[in-house]
Amino acid sequence: MSEKNSNNYLKYSQLGIQLFLTIGICGWLGYKMDSWWNNGKPLFIILMILIGTTGAIYQLYKSLPKH
Predict the structure, then answer these.
(1) 49 assigned to some structural domain
(2) Is residue 26 part of a domain?
(3) Is the pTM of this model over 0.70?
(4) Would the CA dihedral through 24, 31, 29, 50 be positive or negative?
(5) What are the pLDDT digits (tens) for 1-58?
(6) Which of 6, 40, 44, 63 could form a disulfide with 30 if both were Cys (CB 3.0 to 4.6 A apart)?
(7) 66 DSSP assignment
């Protein structure tokens, strides 16, 4: 495996992990917020997952090469 292919592999695997962790942490925070403010509806978990997904996709878009 060449140096360039190795760097690309590390870069894109890091992006996948970052995407997964961002959405997961936001979902966990939304779950905790729902349990703190027990309103009977999963409002914060849905909101935080949407915010995390939007942020993660934006970061993915910014890091892709612009050809």
Answers:
(1) yes
(2) yes
(3) yes
(4) positive
(5) 566 667 777 777 888 899 999 999 999 999 999 999 877 889 999 999 999 999 999 9
(6) 44
(7) -
